[in-house]
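ok, trying the design again with the full structure, not the truncated one.
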């Protein structure tokens, strides 16, 4: 049960729904409320399909590449650490879409929700919890549901926290993610020294 909780928290932190709120609102600002909900649900379903694909194919990919568990854990820790640094110290970047056109697949589903970091993490987790894949699917679905609820209630959250509050929450999530990344890295190093 604790593994499900920790994995769910990890996936929510990487999906970063609160950090993505301003981006979603900016890209979808010219759509009416009903159409905005439809687009968010559609993009989240596309993201879920990609995430499940990488979750189930991840172990096969790692076997083909002949990667060991400790290597996967150490590299996963480094990747998550870099993601967390970007969350704490965000940079302005272009999302590659005009605000007048309705997004499809890019940039909302990929890379904002199902980005390279999340897909890589799912591959790493599928290797780490090879015999508990049902737990991973459960964690992924819980994290996905949490993310879609936050994004559907984006207007409410932005009014509640304000843009500064959302930024502060994203930095807090980044700090938690740094701790999780460090633990993953240390677990990999410990396993490497034991072998």
């Amino acid at each position: 049960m604790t593994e499900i909780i920790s994995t769910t928290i990890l996936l929510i932190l990487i999906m970063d729904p609160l950090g993505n709120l301003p981006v979603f609102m900016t890209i979808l600002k010219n759509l009416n409320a009903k159409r905005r909900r439809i687009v968010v649900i559609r993009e989240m379903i596309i993201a879920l399909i990609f995430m499940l694909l990488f979750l189930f194919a991840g172990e096969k990919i790692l076997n083909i590449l002949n990667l060991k568990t400790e290597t996967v854990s150490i590299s996963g820790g480094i990747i998550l650490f870099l993601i967390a640094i970007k969350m704490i110290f965000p940079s302005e970047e272009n999302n590659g879409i005009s605000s007048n056109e309705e997004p499809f697949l890019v940039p909302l589903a990929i890379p904002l929700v199902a980005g390279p970091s999340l897909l890589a993490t799912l591959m790493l987790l599928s290797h780490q919890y090879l015999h508990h894949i049902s737990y991973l699917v459960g964690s992924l679905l819980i994290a996905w549901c949490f993310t879609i609820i936050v994004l559907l209630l984006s207007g409410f959250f932005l009014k509640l926290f304000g843009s500064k509050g959302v930024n502060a929450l994203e930095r807090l999530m980044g700090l938690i993610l740094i701790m999780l990344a460090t633990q993953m890295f240390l677990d990999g190093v410990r396993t490497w020294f034991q072998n």
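Keeping the full-length input from now on. The chain has eight helices and no strands.
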